[in-house]
Amino acid sequence: MAAIAKNEYLQGLIKSNARAEQQEGVRLLTEIFRTSPERRRECLYYLALGNYKLGNYAEARRYNDLLLDKEPGNLQASSLRTLIDEKVAKEGLFGMAIIGGVAVAAGTIGALLMRGSRRK
Prior knowledge:
By secondary structure, the chain is mainly alpha-helical. The protein is 88% helix and 0% strand.
């Protein structure tokens, strides 16, 4: 019974909206994953979910892929994979937009500086 209560506690931490609780859940699950090989499978989904919620998409994908390797038909893990991929794509596009905006701004400033130096 203690193991069931601990699992429910850890799941509650991961599902929480409080970032500190999510971080604590990931920390505790990571410890279990590393020290208890017999419990790794049960940790994988919640490690993937917790890392996803924290924005650690590479870690989320790594744990989720481990689970899908063991259970290719796992619908929860398949759905989570889609969410991870969408978030990575969205943030990648956002990052490229920021870089593009910085490049345009730098080009504009450079052009203004060049124009100003020619007038002197």
